[in-house]
Design a protein that fits this description.
The structure holds two protein chains of two kinds. Chain A is built from 13 helices and two strands. Chain A is mostly helical. Chain A has a domain of 213 residues. The longest helix of chain A has 27 residues. Chain B has two domains: 164 residues, 3-Layer(aba) Sandwich (Rossmann fold), CATH 3.40.50; 74 residues, no CATH class. The chains are: A mainly alpha, B alpha/beta. Chains A and B meet through helix 7 and helix 8 of A and helix 2, helix 3, helix 5 and helix 6 of B.
Chain lengths: 330, 249
């Protein structure tokens, strides 16, 4: 219980620090951080999948589902509460995930990755040609309210969205950390290492993958809804393959050792993108590529491995293994 | 002793190769059976048929009154059948301790919660017991890749016994282990199983190991059983000496 409470306490402390920091940051940086955290949620879902040995190249489909669910609820149902819209976005993506999961459960490796990509591109094609959903132009959203509170200015809206995103982020990060440290979290790593042994031990690899897929879908939808509210606009590009590729980029950049690393990675990428697009508008993709190349060369396990290295360095040194111990008295 | 496992007319072919030819075996509760035979004789095929890795072309596998033939390994396990592997099947990115925790967690329904930490008091008690019984304490946090072959074998077997199986099949538990370590390894395994009424079937090529640890021996040749009895009787059988041990005059 102690470790879990510690994780939750750390999450709350992080949230308080972020909320305070948001007050001091310029509005543009608040917006960048909000987007980074929202996209970080999607990447966190990918990390959950990757721990179980699967990589989705089409996570944009859940990002997009969350965004469109929130946007359509605002436009068609008149809902404007951000908390409700984000929850709705998450639930819509979760439902889609639960529908898709059985179709993908039997696939692994490149087949799984390619199928997810194919599904996301089908969704892109449908949205691009469905004019009642805004077609390629998408949908514009107005500023949301927050549990009855209507921020008086656009700056206040940005801050309120930042606070909501930060809260969602730290709660998701804490829950994922608890999940990773649980036996079910270990089981995901085991399934990635050796599916046959997992089955021989009596667990279902399909179920492990299905649960991970559902978690990833939920996080994707929540991230999509938060991004949509933050940008005030959604379009089919939310499920375009480059968007999905960006989430894979973030997951590789962060690695799967640390949940905090996912959000650091996302923040770094958003900042690199912001500065690059301002100072090198035609080459910012190149800057991101070089950045990823450096990470793969020097931190192949991602930014999170820095935390892991520090933990290992403070743990007892590795001993040289000895042969099988003989029975005493033999 | 009452029968725990009964196979009736098990048949399995791979193209023209008959790997199991009308195999009918009865294993009694608590019995220690050694399976011997040359490479390709059908020992591992028999283990794979019983544990669900292979589906028989014909025949039945009855465990405790339930026909488990053709069930997936996961479902066979639920009936109380477990196995270890000739090449240890471990989770390479986890430590031995984590490997055992996964096995313990799967064996205990409550342990697979996403909320309970992996090292909960209940899991830790089971873990320490396993580490002590299999003498793995000092290797608990090593990398799997750094473990010597014998220790990997022990981890593999320890994972197989976490749910207290009724039937435990050990596929060549001493293969890849130095001659000096073989008896120490088998001693650790057999002592760890003391007090359990599990039926143990082990595939083995070393006749000294078979003679010392098996109560009964089944000799395989070309997918058939050519001898069944105590080690002395089977190892002295003319066909076994001719086709298996190569000691025929």
């Amino acid at each position: 219980m102690g470790a879990r409470l510690g994780t939750l306490a750390a999450a709350l402390a992080a949230f308080a620090a972020l909320a305070l920091l948001g007050r001091m940051l310029p509005n543009w940086l608040v917006l960048v951080a909000t987007l980074a955290f929202a996209k970080g949620l999607v990447a966190l879902g990918l990390v959950v999948l990757m721990r179980g040995g699967l990589v989705s190249f089409g996570q944009g489909i859940f990002f997009c589902t969350g965004a469109y669910a929130a946007g359509l609820a605002m436009r068609s149902l008149g809902l404007s509460d951000a908390v409700l819209l984000v929850a709705l976005g998450g639930v819509a993506a979760l439902v889609l995930g639960l529908i898709i999961a059985p179709l993908l459960a039997g696939y692994r490796g490149i087949f799984f990755a390619t199928l997810t990509l194919a599904l996301s591109m089908i969704a892109y094609g449908i949205l691009d040609k469905t004019y009642s959903l805004g077609g390629s132009d998408g949908i514009n959203l107005h500023a949301p309210s927050f549990l009855g509170y209507r921020p008086p200015s656009s700056q206040a809206v940005s801050y309120a969205l930042f606070v909501l995103t930060s809260l969602t982020t730290v709660v998701a990060a804490a829950l994922c950390r608890i999940h990773f440290d649980s036996l079910r979290g270990l089981l995901s790593l085991a399934a990635r290492d050796n599916e046959i042994r997992v089955e021989y031990l009596g667990a279902s690899v399909r179920r492990v993958s299905g649960v991970n897929f559902a978690i990833a879908a939920l996080l994707g939808g929540v991230g999509g809804a938060l991004s949509a509210l933050s940008l005030g606009h959604i379009d089919p590009d939310f499920t375009f393959w480059t968007t999905s590729g960006e989430f894979v980029f973030l997951a590789i950049l962060s690695g799967y050792a640390s949940v905090a690393a996912v959000f650091f990675a996302s923040l770094i990428v958003e900042l690199v993108r912001s500065f690059s697009s301002q100072y090198f508008p035609n080459t910012w993709q190149g800057a991101l590529g070089i950045f990823l190349l450096l990470v793969i060369l020097f931190l192949p396990q991602g930014l999170g491995s820095l935390v892991q290295r520090r933990r290992r360095a403070s743990a007892k040194p590795v001993r040289v293994a000895e042969p099988v111990p003989a029975e005493s008295g033999q | 002793m009452t029968a725990l496992l009964e196979t009736r007319g098990l048949q399995k072919s791979f193209g023209a190769v008959v790997a199991a030819n009308d195999l009918s075996v009865v294993a009694r509760r608590g019995e220690r059976l050694g399976l011997i035979g040359n490479n390709g004789a059908g020992k591992t095929t028999f283990v794979n048929l019983v544990t669900g890795y292979l589906k028989p072309d014909a025949g039945r596998v009855v465990l405790d009154g339930h026909d488990i033939a053709g069930l997936a390994p996961r479902l066979v396990r639920r009936h109380g059948v477990s196995r270890s592997f000739q090449i240890p099947q471990l989770f390479a990115s986890l430590t031995p301790e984590e490997n055992l925790l996964v096995a313990l967690g799967i064996a205990s329904e409550e342990g697979m919660s996403a909320w309970q930490p992996a090292r909960s008091p209940a899991m830790t008690a089971g873990l320490e017991d396993l580490l002590a019984r299999f003498r793995l304490g000092e290797y608990r946090d090593h990398a799997i890749a750094a473990l010597p072959g014998g220790v990997r074998k022990l981890v593999d077997v320890a994972m197989a016994v976490t749910h207290q199986p009724k039937l435990l099949l050990l596929d060549e538990p001493t293969s890849g282990v130095t001659a000096e370590e073989k008896f120490a390894l088998m001693d650790v395994i057999m002592r760890a199983l003391e007090g359990s009424d599990a039926t143990v079937l082990f595939v083995e090529h070393d006749m000294e190991i078979v003679g010392r640890y098996a109560e009964r021996v089944l000799a395989f040749y070309e997918g058939r059983i050519i001898a069944d009895g105590t080690p002395d009787v089977v190892l002295g059988h003319a066909d076994v000496q001719r086709f298996v041990t190569g000691m025929a005059p």
